[in-house]
Structures are given as structure tokens and as C-alpha cells.
């Protein structure tokens, strides 16, 4: 049975009601999850004063070709962002991960691999999220202050792990779906500018498909948004957190200690249990 969100490497995308449902799900799921998980963020926290502020986030990197394009675009506009990186990509392109940090951006934990937590055993989910943190710490010298499960798919194990390790979950409220081949720079621009609200968290991607249009879209949208008074920042608390002298314990140790329970999180029967 096909996933609601197809693999990012899929050449052809479904059409009709399936595409419509997937796009609606990407926008509505974070809001539904936030209603049940009390410490889940889909927007920046409220702050006094200036309200036209949002956070740019980029999933799935680093990549050898795409990350430099994003860094150049952000530098050109004097902006900082949060990159939710995959551990396997950090290992593959360690210099790119360090370049992100050196440029003043922050790293978030997108797990070791881009797994589907709803189809993965809880113990394996814990291995993935734990190893993602360890790889970032060992390679880039910083501890990720936030995590984001692939596809935004939560489980009890992810929620409890994030609380134990004080690595809160950040999803999004603006999702232009730049990882889909069918989207264009213009369609991304319309979603970004049409859905952007005060304290929005924007989810974009750093991968082969998105690099064909995301830098161009940002180049088109950011000057106008900045002129209109918008500012963009990394997620709070994510820039000054250095890797601890005591590294994250191996996933096996966490599982053996019984620190994380099993179970799935959905927006019906089990969702309220996750917030307990």
C-alpha cells in the first residue's frame, strides 16, 4: 500500500484526489497533532513587540550541491535558518554540516535516516533518533536543540524521547511541498506568501528535487517579504547549544533502561495518551 507521502526519489507523483489529499494532509496534520501533544511546536513562541517574524527550516540535508546554494541565498539576504539534517547525510557530507554551523545557522535532528515512524518498530525509531543526535554532535560539535521526525509522523516513542532529552519537536504551519517534482518556483512562492503568518515555521527541503526551484523561489520572495517588514530567524535556543562533554548514550542503552515506551501516536484513539 502506497504511503500518503511518496518517497522523495519517486519519479512520478500520484494525481487527482491522492495528490490533493497529500497536500491537505501536509498542512493539516501538524495542527491536529499540536492539539494533542502539549509541547509540540508548529509556530514560534509569542514574544512582545515585532510580530512579523517567522522561521525558515530546511529538511533532509546536508547535500553537496544544494546546501551551498541555500547558504548563499540566506547570506545574501542576511538571514539565519534551522537545518533539520539526516545523520546519514551528515556522515556523507561532514564539511557541509560544519559549514552550516560556521555560517551561524542551527542544526536540528531529522533522525539518522528518513524513516516512516508509523511503519517502524519503536525500538528502531529510538535508534534512529538517538543516532541522529550522536552523529550531529560528533561531526558538527553542536547538540541539536530541536527534532523533527521524517514526514512529521509522531509516535509515543518519539514524543517521550524528546521530553527525556529535552529536544522538543518542531513541525510547521507553512509547507510549500518543494520536494515534489510537480511543484514549481511560482507555486512555492504562492504557498509561502499566501500562508505566511506571524510566528510561522516554514518547512522547505535540501535535496535534489527542491534545489531545482527552492533557491529561485526564495530569491523571488524574500526581497519583497523583507521590504514588507518580515524577518526570519532560526528556531529559538538552537544557536548557542554546544555539544555536551557527556555524549548522548547509545540507543541500546536507552532501550535497555526502558526509558521509552512503545506504541503509535495518531489523532484518534492514541493521540490523547501521548499528551498525558
Automatic annotation (TrEMBL):
One protein family per Pfam: Polysacc_deac_1
Ranges where the NodB homology domain occurs: 52-233
Listed InterPro entries: Glyco_hydro/deAcase_b/a-brl (IPR011330), NODB_dom (IPR002509), Polysacc_deacetylase_ArnD (IPR050248)
The UniProt record lists the keyword Cytoplasm: no
Protein's UniProt keywords contain ATP-binding: no
GO MF annotation, one: hydrolase activity, acting on carbon-nitrogen (but not peptide) bonds
EC numbers on record: 3.5.1.104
Cross-referenced SUPFAM superfamilies: Glycoside hydrolase/deacetylase
One of the protein's GO biological processes: carbohydrate metabolic process
Record protein name field: Peptidoglycan-N-acetylglucosamine deacetylase
Organism: Caulifigura coniformis
Source organism phylogeny: Bacteria, Pseudomonadati, Planctomycetota, Planctomycetia, Planctomycetales
Amino acid at each position: 500500500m502506497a504511503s500518503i507521502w511518496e518517497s522523495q526519489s519517486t519519479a512520478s507523483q500520484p494525481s487527482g484526489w491522492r495528490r490533493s489529499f497529500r497536500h491537505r494532509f501536509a498542512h493539516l496534520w501538524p495542527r491536529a497533532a499540536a492539539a494533542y501533544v502539549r509541547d509540540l511546536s508548529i509556530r514560534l513562541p509569542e514574544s512582545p513587540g515585532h510580530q512579523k517574524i517567522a522561521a525558515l527550516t530546511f529538511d533532509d540535508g546536508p547535500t553537496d550541491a544544494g546546501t551551498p546554494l541555500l547558504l548563499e541565498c540566506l547570506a545574501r539576504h542576511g538571514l539565519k535558518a534551522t537545518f533539520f539534517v539526516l545523520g546519514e547525510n551528515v556522515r556523507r557530507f561532514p564539511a557541509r554540516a560544519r559549514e552550516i554551523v560556521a555560517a551561524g545557522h542551527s542544526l536540528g535532528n531529522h533522525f539518522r535516516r528518513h524513516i516512516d515512524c508509523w511503519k517502524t518498530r519503536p525500538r528502531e525509531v529510538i535508534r534512529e533518533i538517538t543516532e541522529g543526535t550522536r552523529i550531529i554532535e560528533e561531526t558538527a560539535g553542536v547538540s541539536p536543540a530541536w527534532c523533527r521526525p521524517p514526514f512529521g509522523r509522531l509516535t509515543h516513542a518519539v514524543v517521550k524521547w524528546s521530553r527525556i532529552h529535552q529536544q522538543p519537536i518542531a513541525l510547521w504551519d507553512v509547507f510549500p511541498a518543494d520536494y515534489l517534482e510537480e511543484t514549481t518556483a511560482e507555486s512555492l512562492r504562492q504557498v509561502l506568501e499566501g500562508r505566511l503568518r506571524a510566528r510561522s515555521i516554514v518547512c522547505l527541503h535540501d535535496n535534489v528535487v527542491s534545489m531545482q526551484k527552492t533557491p529561485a523561489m526564495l530569491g523571488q520572495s524574500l526581497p519583497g517579504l523583507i521590504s514588507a517588514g518580515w524577518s526570519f530567524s532560526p528556531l529559538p535556543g538552537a544557536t548557542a547549544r554546544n555539544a555536551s562533554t557527556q555524549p548522548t548514550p547509545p540507543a541500546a542503552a536507552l532501550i535497555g533502561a526502558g526509558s521509552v515506551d512503545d506504541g503509535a501516536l495518531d489523532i484518534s484513539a492514541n493521540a490523547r495518551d501521548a499528551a498525558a
